[in-house]
Design goal:
The complex is a heterodimer.
Chain A lengths: L1 E10 L2 E11 L4 E5 L6 H9 L6 E6 L2 E3 L7 E4 L11 H11 L4 H14 L15 H13 L5 E5 L7 H16 L3 E6 L2 H7 L2 E6 L2 E6 L1 H8 L4 H16 L2
Parallel strand pairs in A: 3-8, 3-9, 6-7, 7-8
Antiparallel strand pairs in A: 1-2, 1-4, 4-5, 9-10
Helix pairs in contact in A: 2-3, 2-4, 3-4, 7-8
Chain B lengths: L2 H15 L2 H33 L1 E6 L5 H9 L3 E5 L4 H7 L4 E5 L3 H6 L6 E4 L5 H28 L20 H37 L3 H5 L5 H32 L14 H28 L3 H24 L14 H11 L6 H26 L2 H5 L6
Parallel strand pairs in B: 1-2, 1-3
Antiparallel strand pairs in B: 3-4
The chains are: A alpha/beta, B mainly alpha.
Chain lengths: 242, 394
């Protein structure tokens, strides 16, 4: 479980996140929805401890602290950032070892992750020639290797084709059913609608609405999630302009 | 040092060993220096050897049969008639040296008046210069012999013609003379260390950030200090490998050169190699720390590389300074990192003993400075700027 309590962060004079609070439960896929520049990535970076909040706290599995313990977090940043000269397996092994896994235990976990993401046929090839979909899978396997109970994904479907997106959705559902707390950021409505159980809608560094996709549609009095999103964004935009 | 440090170091070494560019750089710098120095030394040896056997082309040999016969009796001297157009023959390299005996040589010689000869050499060709010196020395010695004979005939002691007896004594040991030549090799050694370290230090910092792999890496439960230390260890290992390979090639090249001709005894045994390694290694401990620091600060891989290239300039300049300076006596030179390495290596080549105190000082100095740079780099790794740079600010 991850709780964000009144997070705030600015870079120089630019307020990236003004005030963000929400709770992401175990066994639930929580979607962080918002237009570009809404503060989704900065929020995720504060949740992962990569960036220190100016104000507010992050609570992971009941443990409070400005920087949460990274051992129980798996984070997939927007860019996969794989090492091209290493094989898929070596990429996964590196992160597993940094998480303290060793020997047979490490190898067993690598095999499990490779199997879960269907990477068997490419596991021992160097990553350099991989497609975007394959890269995403390796990056995901790399962060899943240490079996964290909380998974943060920053726009994971960017640039993925239909088949890879479906594969990713399948993996996320499986992890959710195992009781993992999944937080997922996106600006694509359709994807969020189908993948997430719970939504946190962000705009201009603030949370403007939370609830299930259905609740949000009802709240905004619109026909679709997209319309609800546009309507909610306009409300906050009207508030902010003088 | 802890386990994550070694995990990081191991990964960086595997990564670098698969990078064609860094392997190519390692091999090129390791071979280039020794081969170049070998070529130069070999050329010097060839020149020295050519002076041992000189063919003198003589114009007008019949005008001075006594002189020509005397020359013929000297060891390693052959006399032959000069080709027509002797000057162009000299320039084209057909003749090494031309001796012109003037028309009135024999009458002036018989009259005990200075008889003229001309030695033609081409100063643009070292072989011709060496031959010219040899022949001039021989002519002087012939003249002296004749002069002594004439004085004795007139009942005058030959000592009258020798008011000053000049003798020269060289206190530089042959080893030191060798060191002077071989200091060039030391500069190449240090360049190999620098370029090898630079590859891995830059690639694992600025390169890591540019490829966007830094953010995922920072999300692991590893302290920034452990990351920096791991990358440093890998760069040190790479630089050390370059040093060992280059030393080995230097040894191989030098054993194949006819250096005895130059009168410089170069020891190419294993213990000299080990001592040279011990003298130069502090550079391999120091430079990677600075290069990692530059890699953290630079905005891109290319920028980091150009910063590191600037680092090579002062190192090479200090190498030249150590050749020009009086390395044996200047105490301050032993206190400056990099320069101290050159001085100690020159000590090894000069056959002097490396003092334990000097070695200890050099190592603690190098490690101390490296620690400061790594500490600064680790602090920088923790900052928001490092994560955000080139990453957008969302």
């Amino acid at each position: 479980m991850i709780q964000a309590k009144r997070l705030r962060k600015s870079f120089g004079t630019k307020m990236a996140v003004r005030e963000v609070s929400f709770v992401a439960q175990n066994g639930v896929v929580t979607g962080l929805l918002g237009p570009n520049g809404a503060g989704k990535t900065t929020t995720l970076r504060m949740l992962s401890g990569l960036v220190r909040p100016d104000h507010g706290t992050v609570v992971v599995d009941g443990r409070d602290g400005r920087s949460p313990p990274l051992t129980n977090l798996a984070v997939l940043p927007e860019r996969s950032g794989l090492y091209d000269r290493l094989t898929a397996r070596e990429n996964i092994r590196y992160f597993g070892a940094l998480h303290g896994l060793t020997g047979l235990n490490l190898e067993r976990r690598i095999d499990e992750c490779v199997a879960m993401l269907g990477l068997q046929s490419v596991a021992d090839r160097r990553v350099a020639g991989f497609s975007t979909g394959e890269r995403m899978k390796v990056a995901l396997a790399r962060v899943l290797v240490h079996q964290a109970r909380n998974l943060l994904l920053d726009e994971p479907t960017n640039g993925l084709d239909v088949m890879s997106t479906r594969g990713l959705r399948e993996v996320i559902r499986r992890l959710r059913d195992d009781g993992v707390c999944v937080i997922f950021s996106s600006h694509v409505m359709a994807e969020v609608g189908t993948m997430c159980d719970q939504l946190v809608v962000m705009a201009l560094g603030r949370v403007i609405a939370t609830g299930s996709p259905r609740e949000l549609i009802t709240m905004a009095g619109t026909m679709s999630l997209e319309d609800a999103f546009v309507s909610l964004s306009q409300q906050i935009g009207a508030q902010d302009s003088p | 040092m802890s386990l994550p440090t070694f995990i990081v170091a191991r990964k960086e070494l595997i990564d670098a060993s698969r990078d064609r560019r860094s392997i190519a750089t390692l091999v090129l710098t390791a071979f280039f220096g020794p081969l170049m120095a070998g070529f130069m030394l070999n050329h010097q040896a060839a020149v020295a050897k050519s002076a041992e056997h000189v063919v003198v082309s003589v114009v007008g040999a019949d005008r001075a049969p006594l002189l020509v016969d005397w020359l013929k009796q000297q060891q390693g001297i052959d006399v032959m008639p000069a080709p027509p157009h002797s000057e162009s023959a000299l320039r084209s390299g057909q003749a090494a040296i031309v001796l012109v005996i003037e028309d009135n040589f024999s009458e002036r010689f018989r009259a005990s008046r200075p008889a003229k000869v001309e030695v033609l050499a081409d100063s643009t060709r070292p072989i011709s210069v060496a031959a010219g010196q040899r022949v001039s020395t021989l002519l002087t010695s012939f003249a002296n012999t004749v002069a002594i004979g004439r004085l004795v005939v007139r009942g005058v002691s030959p000592d009258v013609a020798n008011p000053i007896d000049v003798r020269q004594r060289d206190v530089g040991t042959p080893g030191e003379r060798a060191a002077l030549v071989l200091n060039v090799v030391l500069i190449f050694l240090s360049l190999a260390v620098l370029t090898a370290g630079m590859q891995i230090a830059t690639d694992s910092t600025a390169g890591e950030r540019e490829r966007r792999s830094l953010e995922p890496l920072l999300l692991n439960p590893v302290t920034r200090w452990q990351l920096v230390a791991g990358k440093y260890l890998a760069a040190v290992a790479w630089a050390t490998a370059a040093l060992v390979v280059t030393l080995f090639i230097v040894g191989e090249v030098l054993t194949r050169l006819p250096l005895d001709v130059l009168g410089i005894p170069v020891r190419t045994d294993a213990s000299t190699g080990l001592l040279l390694f011990a003298a130069m290694l502090p550079l391999g401990l120091l430079a990677p720390a600075i290069q990692i620091h530059l890699g953290c600060f630079a905005k891109s891989f290319t920028e980091a590389q150009s910063y590191s290239a600037f680092l090579i300039l002062p190192v090479a300049a200090l190498g030249v300074l150590s050749i020009l300076g009086n390395v044996a006596t200047s105490l301050w030179m032993r206190a400056v990192p990099v320069l101290a390495q050159y001085v100690m290596a020159a000590d090894v080549l000069g056959g002097r003993v490396l003092s334990t105190r000097d070695l200890l000082a050099a190592y603690s100095e190098a490690l101390g400075v490296a620690f400061v740079f790594l500490w600064l780099s680790a602090r920088f790794f923790s900052s928001d700027r490092m994560v955000m740079q080139g990453n957008g600010t969302r």
